[in-house]
Structure formats: structure tokens, C-alpha cells
Amino acid sequence: MQLRATPLKPAREPFDPAYDPNHARSPGTGKDYAPTYWIGTAGPEPEDDGPVTRDIDVDVAIIGSGYTGLSCAIHLAREHGIKATVLEANGVAWGCSTRNGGQAQISAGRLKRSQWIARWGVDVARKMHAEISEGFDLFRALVKEPEIDCDPQDGGHLYIAHRDKMLPALENEVRVLNDTFGYRARMISRDEIHRDFVRDEEARGAMYEPDGMGIHAAKLAFGYLRLARKLGARVHTSSPVLSCIAKGGMHYLTTPGGTVRARAVCIATAGYTSPGMNALTRHRLMPILSNSIVTRPLTESEQKALNFKARIPLTDTRTLRHYYRMLPDGRVQIGSRSAITGRDAGNPKHLELLLAGLYRKFPALRDIDIDYSWWGWVDVSHDMMPRIFQPDPAQRLFYAMGYGGNGVMYSAQAGRRMAQMVAGKGGDLDLPIFTSSLPGHGLLTPFRRLGQWGMYRWYYLRDEIL
Predict the structure, then answer these.
(1) What is the pLDDT at residue 25?
(2) In this structure, are residues 21 and 353 in contact, taking their beta carbons and an 8 Å threshold?
(3) In principle, which of 215, 269, 296, 310 could form an S-S bond with 197, CB 3.0–4.6 Å?
(4) Residue 225 CB partners (closer than 8 Å, separation 6+)
């Protein structure tokens, strides 16, 4: 199948480092990408369908062209014969999908399996585990598609205890995973980590999960784009949805270039969801900033000093955890939580804190040159779990978001599940993430960031001192 030619793209507006989804009407129109390692090394962007330039009628409009939105478009076409129209404010996958750490883990949201059991009971937790495992199988299949060449590094995930006091919780989680879910997790000693994986000086032990994969974030997104368009989806960039209003059985999506009239709408905007876009998604997420850096390529002696044998995702046990790994080209990437507001995102202190984390783990890298530094918004839900849901039975409007920083893998399955719902085939989706809405903060909404400020300080005390 031949891809459609791309209209000439307008010149991009400069990237806005202080963008804040809590205050902006939209992420902008045609703004440049964040200066991430992924964008800097992905190669030329694939073709898209350019901006919306007139009023159009579509069967399904998908708002957001990140992993979730493009997966939804792929599965609507493949499994249900529906060719969707994807609307993107800036460039394809401009938000979370090109600013993450490129780590695919067998999780969705922030809760562990033991917390699932405490919240929903064993039977529901087992069904949730089966859903997440199916999602990982889907993700593995997608990254093998010929259109998707994203430098996969398969081989598992290490959840590393950064202090001795974290080991009992990891040991308990291993027991739960093995005894309740039949999942072959295991504990690994500090010596084993240093010998077989990496010389992380903070490591006191770790939980090893067999499922985990590193990927190139932008190459994955651009591969999804190529596949979605090959299957017949249209992807309109520089077309922010300024409002989404239901009227007379249709949805009217206002963009700068024209109104898109859609019979069904899928919202996949994650941490970049504007409060003013639609009442059903207003203040349903807590956007959290995460920053990330990538070093210059390590020399042979530096790699030997770190004994970086593992090329898999690594995560530590801090509440505001570090996620890190060795990239295929010999660089180290590390990220963690950052500022609270957009206007403070560029404050040098956040980079300094992240560098301090890098040096604690790998003293041999002290003062190493940093080639890439960026930040982006993470879509944390108020109960720490995602939702794929139709919030109003009277409207054919659906959303999938709230991954809490664990969306690289599960977003593929979430997009597929949302496609099922749109096609009217979601009747057997009875898990809590499919049957309840994203919770809101209600009257506490104006004070969320004040609470976040206080919680960050408590997390630091708990993680580092107490």
C-alpha cells in the first residue's frame, strides 16, 4: 500500500520549556519537540497528513498521537475495519511518547501486585495480572513489525533496593508474584548485581522480573505512525483540539483549521490533557514533571568500571524513583521526578539533583559530559492506576490514560482495549480499570500542588534519611 503524500508543513514554533498543562488551553500549535535524545537520534520524521484545513466528518476522532492514540488507530483498522482520524496539537508523539525513559515493564500504573490484592482481592488481581501479561505479549509482537524499528533490548527488569530497609518489601513482592500469580520473579544479591548486571554502588539487592525491555522512544512512536497510516488512518498534526462538545449524537472538535465532526471520540492526551478541552476529563489527572539526561558515549574503560553487562531497564526503590539503563550506543540514560510547576522546570537545581543521583550510583561518571537534558509531564491518576473507560453512557466518548510513568508497554494494550470499546466489543472488559472513571480531587483541586510540594519533602525524608 502506498502512503499518502504529506502536505507541506508550516515552520514550527519554538519549543516552550515552561509549558504547564494545568494552565494552558492547549499544548500549542505546531511547536517544536523537546530536545530529547530520542528526537535527536531517531532520524527523519515519517510523513503525516498535515494540519486540518477545513471542516471534516469522520467516524472516529482520536485526540493525541502518542503511543495510546496510534495503537488505538492501528487496532481499530486491524481488528474492526475502522479507519480513524488522529488529531495532534504539535508533531506526532510530541508529549509523553518522546520524553519517557524508553522502559517497557510488566506493569501499568504505580501499584504493585500486593497492592492490587489489598485493593481488589486475589481474584481480580489475578485477572489484572493476566491483562498486563497479555499487554506485554502484544507489545513484543508490535515491536517486531517491519514498520517499527525501535532498537529493542529485551531481557527483563531489575527493581533495585537503594537501601537495606527496602529489601523486605522486595522479598515479599517476589513471594506474591511467585505464589499468587505463578510469575517467576526472584531476588538477586548485591554481589550478583555487580557481577552479572551492573556495578550500581547504591544497590543492596534487587527483584528480577523476566519481562522488561528497553526501546528507542521516538523510533517506537514513529513506527506506530507508519503502521497506522499504512492501515488507512489519517494523522493530522498542528491541529490542537481547543474544545470537544457533544451535540445531537455527534462530537464537534474545534481546531484552528476547521471543525472535526465525529461519531465517536477517543482521548489519548495523557499528561498533556488540557482542563478546558472536555468536562469529562477535567482535573482527572495529576500531571507530574519528570526529567531525564543522557551522557556522552562511555569509553571502554568507563564501561569496564561500571561493569554494565545488562542492557535492560533498571529502577530503584525510591518513591520518586530513578529509572536508568545503558543505551545501545554506549550512553547512560537516567531520569527521575522533577519540578512541580512548568515555570520552574528549567531551574538548574533539578538537573543538579539528577546528576547527584547518577554520581551516587556510578561514581566513575562524576563530571561526565551530558549530551541531552529534557523534561516532560507524566499522567499520574489520583488512585495510581490507569483507566480505559467510557465516562458517560450517553456519549460515544472514551479515554485511555493515567499510566503514572508506566505507559510505554501498556499503552499498546490500552489503545487496543479502547478500540474494542469504540467498536462495541468491550462487553467482557470487567476489570476496575475498564469499569470506573478516573477519580477527581473535587474541592481539593486548587491545592493539589501545595500537597505535592509537601509530599515530595516527606518522600525525601522517608527514602533517604528515616
Answers:
(1) 83
(2) no
(3) 310
(4) 46, 48, 65, 70, 92, 93, 235
Cα 267 versus chain centre, distance: 15
Residue corresponding to grid cell 551492573 = 198
| Cell of residue 156, nine digits | 527483563
Alpha-carbon gap, residue 121 to 440, rounded angstroms: 23
What domains appear along the chain, each with residue ranges and CATH number? 154-210+287-378 (3.30.9.10)
Q: What is the 3-state secondary structure (H, E, C) of 86-140?
A: EECCCCCCCCHHHCCCCEEECCCCCCCHHHHHHHHCHHHHHHHHHHHHHHHHHHH
Half-sphere exposure (Cβ direction) of 329: Cα atoms closer than 13 Å? 12
| Grid cell of 416 as nine digits | 487496543
Question: In whole angstroms, what is the distance from residue 241 CA to residue 307 CA?
Answer: 48
Residue 400: its H or E element = strand 397-401
Q: What is the pLDDT of residue 448?
A: 85
The whole-angstrom distance between residue 353's C-alpha and the CA centroid of its chain comes to 22
pTM for this predicted structure: 0.96
For residue 126, give the C-alpha cell. Answer: 489475578
* Region for 58 from its dihedrals, namely left if φ exceeds 0, alpha if ψ lies in -120 to 50, beta otherwise: beta
CA distance 409 to 102: 9
Grid cell of 330 as nine digits: 554506549
196, three cell numbers: 552479572
Residue 285: DSSP 8-state: E
pLDDT at 9: 54
pLDDT at 2: 36
End-to-end CA distance of the chain: 60
- Whole-Å CA distances, 342 to 28, 90, 278, 286, 339: 14, 18, 22, 13, 7
* Helix 167-181, helix 113-120: angle, nearest 10: 70
Residue 8: what pLDDT? Answer: 46
- Ranges of residues in the chain whose predicted pLDDT is under 50: 1-8
Interacting residues of 344 by C-beta distance below 8 A, sequence separation 6+: 350
Q: Taking Cα atoms as reference points, which of 221, 197, 191 lies closest to residue 209?
A: 197
